[in-house]
Amino acid sequence: MGLKTFIGGVHPYEGKELAKDAPIKEVLPKGELVFPLSQHIGAPASPIVSVGTTVLKGQKIAEAGGFVSAPVHSSVSGTVKAIEPRRVAVGDMVNSIVIESDGEFIDVGYEGVDDVTALSNEEIIGRIKEAGVVGMGGAGFPTHVKLSPKEPAKIEYIIANCAECEPYLTADYRRMLENPEQLIGGMKIILQMFPNAKGVFGVENNKPDCIAKLKELTQNESRMEVCELMTKYPQGGERQLIYAVTGRAINSKMLPADAGCIVDNVETIIAVYHAVKEGIPVMKRVSTVTGDAVANPSNFLYSIGTPYSELIEAAGGFKVQPEKIISGGPMMGFSMFGLDIPTTKTSSSILCLSKDAVSASEPIACINCGRCVEACPEQLIPSRLAKFGDRGLSKEFESWHGLECIECGSCSYICPSRRQLAQSIKTMKKLVLAEKRKQK
Amino acid sequence: MSDLYHVSSSPHVRSKDSTSRIMLYVILALLPASFFGIYNFGFRALLIMLITIAGCVASEWIFEKIVHKKSTISDLSAVVTGLLLALNLPVSLPWWEALLGSVFAIIIVKMLFGGLGQNFMNPALGARCFLLIAFAADMTNFNCDAYTGATPLALIRENNGAIPADLNVMDMLTGRTAGTIGETCVIAILLGAIILILLGVIDLKIPASYIITFSIFILIFGASPFDTTYLVAELCGGGLMLGAFFMATDYVTSPITPKGQIVYGICCGLLTGLFRCFGANAEGVSFAIILSNLLVPLIEKFTVPRAFGLVKEAKKNE
After folding, report:
1. CB within 8 Å: B251 and A249
2. What is the ipTM metric for this complex?
3. Cβ–Cβ gap A357/B13 under 8 Å
4. Where along chain A do its domains lie?
5. Is A333 on the interface with B (CB under 8 A)?
6. Distance from CA of A368 to the nearest CA of B (A)
7. Would you tell me which CATH number, out of the four given (1.10.3720.10, 3.90.190.20, 3.40.50.11540, 3.40.600.10), belongs to the domain A116-278?
8. pLDDT tens digits for B116-136?
9. Which of A36, B37, B56, B208 could be disulfide-bonded to A94 (CB atoms 3.0-4.6 Å)?
10. Side-by-side strand order, sheet with A32-36
């Protein structure tokens, strides 16, 4: 039996050695912080403060805009300077609350719980919802929604996504080494709500120290186990992780809960722990600041809303002029044209590369080599889907299962003709889905 | 906004593999067969290779000049076509016929259909079949300094399926027989095939399904049914090995769907068997492969793989 994994995938340069050994360091924000009202999937939050309001650290500044939504909290004490559209990492202008920090960091006061086991499921969900916990790996799906499946009794696995398969990223790695008790504590709280589930920590085998540590700390936990996974991208993709851990396959029309699974990443589970146990809302997170252009690649614990430029400054600035700055990992992250952009709940990393591989490579004709087919973790034919996309053939695109694409980028990565396959497929997918919504 | 950084859609990193590197690997894998061809058939074999390679590269370059397209000769695919064509020609072929073949391969089969990636049949094989029809006598004349007389397959055919006394299967493995420049030495071709597989250029789906189907067909319908010596001679003779590993596996003209590749290999095997057993010629690989090339779009249409996770859903609905 080999290591647990999925079919397909690629092995990009890992680059984790850059920031792997840098312990988590706290960075305090300096002046202005920006809190976009849409840091999650779903309805934007609606502000409950106005310009001039003084706020405390941890104070709620925007209320959830619906069930699938999440509130936003200030991560500093200070004064609301403006409520206006600001540019975010993905490139959009998003209505945001701008707060000028007073540099005091006065807490609003949190309501901790001594005995979590005494809480009812509703109370736990309520605390998670109030704390604004969302999927902090990148997608930003509100966690209280994820943890409220239709049939809780049918959930058999709570999977902690500890794969961290994106190259360069080491934030989850440091979290597992430095705060494993919070991770396990968070898992315990989630398991409390699902009596039939077991908690699985899925860790790629390029992190043997994390595997050893988690195994050691969970050896007396009868409901938890550590699952060693093959190091391969996208091992941390939700469908791929579920398949590797449980052998169950889900498609785009299914939820993990349909396969009896709930998947949350490391940072999210730690946020659940803080929210439920200590009553602390999501206002800090750990991110990796790395890349060959950064002087001292680091892992920072910082106040969400801090601009990216301050994190880069904290990492010693640039040692060479970068060509590309990416929010997130190199495979699925968003490139940014400037640094005057706020960090959000979903900012897992800032990656600064001295060379941009994309602009350096000129796409040439597809030779039908099939490397994208081998790499695709969804067993699609990316080269054809990209062709259908470029030509606007939506029917063919759908009949070749284009909507199943998880946008992992493995096809573009592997293409010897350097074609932008993922880009064409993603664009077409958006068009087809928009068309479907219109028809409804 | 003094410093603007590059912006593009993810992913932001690329693997090292490139199209020209893949072509270079194919050329590398063709070297054992090429060297043996020169060693076996003499200096003229080298001359034919140089003519076809130069002919292919020059045709592509001139064509792109005329139609004002960016030159693509640096992707090395024309070199591969030229070398493959040479390996499929008899050493005694007049030089201008070889040159004409190269021009046909690149201009007619490849460039007129849109260039690299767009041709629907293998350019080298298309040219070989063209020459076979246009210059039948020259293309089947295997008399040269090293050998006189017919190819092993033709000899076996004349002998009604029995292996003639003067034909040694060992010679067919080592290539000491009459034939085209690159097809005779099975050992050199297999060495090249191993290089292709180890470098990850091809996998075994097409060659294996091709050779297995062909073997079964020959065992049943061949001139000497269930005779293993005859089978080995059929496998080693003609262009089968070169075709199965180097021509049928051409990316552009074979299916991209994994199941389709197996179906396509089976088509190649069946057609080759059919042409060899019942056709007018002892040889049939080239025509079998280009005919199968034509079936590729159809094969792909029926072998679109089910995406991950959809298999289970289908079962559930039943």
Report:
1. no
2. 0.90
3. yes
4. 116-278, 371-439
5. yes
6. 5
7. 3.40.50.11540
8. 999 999 999 999 999 999 999
9. A36
10. A32-36, A93-101, A78-87, A54-55
